[in-house]
Amino acid sequence: KGKCPEDGWDESTIELFLHELAIMDSNNFLGNCGVGEREGRVASGLVARRHYRLIHGIGRSGDISAVQPKAAGSSLLNKLTNSVVLDIIKLAGVRTVTNCFVVPMATGMSLTLCFLTLRHKRPKAKYIIWPRIDQKSCFKSMITAGFEPVVIENVLEGDELRTDIEAVEAKIKALGAENILCVHSTTSCFAPRVPDRLEELAVICANYDIPHIVNNAYGIQSSKCMHLIQQGARVGRIDAFVQSLDKNFMVPVGGAIIAGFNESFIQEISKMYPGKASASPSLDVLITLLSLGASGYKQLLKERKEMFSYLSSELKKLADIHNERLLDTPHNPISLAMSLKNLDENNDAAVTQLGSMLFTRQVSGARVVPCGSVQTVNNYTFKGFMSHANDYPCAYLNAASAIGIKKQDVDVFLKRLDKCLKTSRKEAKKEKSVNEISNSNTGTEQLGD
Predict the structure, then answer these.
(1) Using CA atoms, how far apart are residues 119 and 181, in angstroms rounded to an integer?
(2) Which tens digits make up the pLDDT trace of 168-224?
(3) CA-to-CA distance for 289 and 8, rounded, in angstroms?
(4) Cα–Cα distance between 280 and 416 in angstroms, integer?
(5) Whether 93 contacts 230, CB under 8 Å
(6) Which of 150, 259, 320, 419 could serve as a FRET partner for 17 with CA atoms 20 to 30 Å apart?
(7) Residue 155 — φ and ψ, nearest 5°?
(8) What is the pTM of this model?
(9) Interval 269-305: pLDDT, tens
(10) Residues 6 or more apart in contact with residue 248 via CB below 8 angstroms
(11) Cα–Cα distance measured from residue 86 to residue 92, given in angstroms and rounded to the nearest whole number
């Protein structure tokens, strides 16, 4: 039926299944005689075994979803993967999704593919409306496709940075709907930014007949993010939503899923991909989902949500001990932020030093965000870069509860963060004392003169 099995398969069963697929490809036929330029020949036995002898990749030169006559096994692998992934997307909360496909590119380039597909539908359009999120690849995805991003600054509501719906609509009226390729919104993101107001954006897109592409990079693992997409499609317009394979399914980097509610539009995007494609991302995610089963994946989602609550409560306790504050960001279901006001009072260097200290102590993934950082990306200058706003009120540290996180990860992180904060405070006090002595000596010398 093309659905993810409820219970996971053991490794020997999965390997047997993959070998059965492989013997359906012509390069593995006994007595096969290949005289073309691409015949699935592999020089290294190690490489052949790494790919289970599924060498032909997926798709044909004109369509990444097309069947290859001489690679029936690889083609079936592609179809099965897309079908199983579609089932998981429905299970995760977007129940009315109609079509999806795995593409062997990360999220940024997959977004570019969506924009290039829309170009043919809206030849006059040159702008993309983009509520600001300080992540380079989604910004570059629009530039690479040849469009001009129109950055909509977020509004501060309490501690949260939220979508400025009025500014989006005003910009659409100012530029003219026909000149706008699409609205490019975001779900999963670093706190204190929170997922965009997808329902309101979807309604605006429907009212102005403007396409809507959603960057759902690591949103499959969050029921909140998936609910936003489902609701947006129900009340308004969402043309496609794009998500990362590695961030949602714990596979190597290099793949994404493009999904949507209009089957023909998703097929158009797949036909826009030039040439054949690597089957590695499809193979990785299929093996993973067959191994986990639907019940195993649901359990991972449940554990992630529990760890988010645990991380939130424990990080708040630590923040209180150090006279800091866990920022109040209830609309962000994955990422948390803790203020670093005491460090920031000294200087930005103290904030960035904390990030270095954590990294050298083998804490990966934590982000420290100083105030006032400026960065230029493709000739566009972002003030307060990494904080999603020109002047967020304080420096802060990010930590996330992503799929696969364990209680041990949280406990070790909090222990090491506590030590780093104590060390930073000591160094700040020492530096302050040295400065006071230096200033005092300077004053004494001036009196002597």
Answers:
(1) 7
(2) 999 999 999 999 999 999 999 999 999 999 999 999 999 999 999 999 999 999 999
(3) 7
(4) 37
(5) yes
(6) 259
(7) -110, 145
(8) 0.94
(9) 999 998 889 999 999 999 999 999 999 999 999 999 9
(10) 218, 219, 220, 221, 403
(11) 10
